[in-house]
Amino acid sequence: MISIFEVNETNKMIEQENLDVRTITLGISLLDCIDSDLEKLNEKIYNKITTYAKDLVATGEKISAQYGIPIVNKRISVTPIGLIGGAACKTTDDFVTIARTLDKAAKQVGVNFIGGYTALVSKGMTPAEELLIRSIPQALASTERVCSSVNVGSTKTGINMDAVKLMGEIILETAQATKEQDSLGCAKLVVFCNAPDDNPFMAGAFHGVTEADSIINVGVSGPGVVKTALEKVRGEDFETLCEMIKRTAFKVTRVGQLVAREASKMLGVPFGIVDLSLAPTPAIGDSVAEILEEIGLERAGAPGTTAALALLNDQVKKGGVMASTAVGGLSGAFIPVSEDQGMIDAVTAGALTIEKLEAMTCVCSVGLDMIAVPGDTKASTISGIIADEAAIGMVNQKTTAVRLIPVIGKGVGETVEFGGLLGYAPIMPVNNFSCDAFVARGGRIPAPIHSFKN
């Protein structure tokens, strides 16, 4: 039973501290749509998505109105298209037709994004998965709402360096294909190690093959709530600080659990998970960087930043798991540059570099996210950054990801504006010493010894 005190407290968090449910994401299996005829495949995909998701947006709006909880995004994730399109797609253009079908279906039902233009290639690539990957630049340039992801490594299989090399090239091609929009296509493309099957957040959401026919996953967000709570314990010891974060995360997750249960009931779709990730926005006061600064740092990136982020991430998880029957997805602290005003300010002040961000990803469950880099960055350099991040995920048995945006025609010191939740970002310098010979070796970096558990 929720008390009147909890209701009032939740209202305050929503009105004054930027609490929201960042997304309700409907996962839809497309396994029963597989067909060797491309036209029939596209028809089946469109019909299934528009049938299953026809009430998703209206349901989100109804819950938001009923409980006064902002639900910012309504999204769809589907089974990785690298699996679904294998029988019908013989060229990259064939795969692009599926991307356009996904986009058309997403527009029809009114969702913000649809994820699952995805290939899972951590150990090797099938011909169809390679075709899908090579089609990504054209697919993202010719659609508005489609998001793409590629899983290039895992703790169990190691890192597929052929895929890593290819993704460095594909990211640059995507940047070129969307250069008129400041290379916006790259904001809808993420490269994973240990990608989760139930992530509700874009651009990396896809519907895992072990999931039910459809599922509801919810992502909550409350950086502003956590920061405001920590202001009450300014100067206190770490035990007091941790207890406050944990209690606040519990309250935030309770909101997500409520929304997930209601959406599940209204849509007649099983409840999957609540993702505990702290997802910032460009709004003032809704920043993970500002939480780190409230913990005691002059700027995010100062000495102590990694320790502060580790503390934050752990306490959010400890509080969240007590508030929900099922926690999953990424459940970490997002540390994107472009979507977090505090991170932008830290980069501008010279406190935060890509190398420090990489160190921070060792203790959170996301990765190098929404980082704008010079448009003349080499493909091999991007591949090297992907390999570094994948290695962190592989060795530490955790999810890591890279979403780099080489902004064609722009360099260090310039700014790129994406708009909306994507915000804006300063172009960050990258290490320009060559890793060409390393990336060119090809093959697979073997899984670590602790991956063998049978």
Folded structure, characterized:
The protein is of the alpha/beta class. Helices cover about 45% and strands about 20% of the residues. It is built from 15 helices and 14 strands. The protein has helices spanning about 5-15, 40-50, 55-65, 80-85, 90-110, 125-140, 160-175, 225-230, 240-265, 290-295, 305-320, 340-350, 355-360, 380-395, 435-440; strands at about 20-30, 70-80, 115-120, 145-155, 160, 190-195, 215-220, 270-275, 325-330, 365-375, 400-405, 415, 425, 445. Strands 1, 2, 3, 4, 5, 6, 7, 8, 9, 10, 11 and 14 form a 12-stranded mixed sheet that branches. Helix 2 packs parallel to helix 5 (about 90-110). The longest helix is centred in the middle third of the chain and has 30 residues, at about 240-265. The radius of gyration is 21 Å and the shape is globular. It starts with a helix and ends in a 9-residue tail after the last strand. The relative contact order is 0.13.
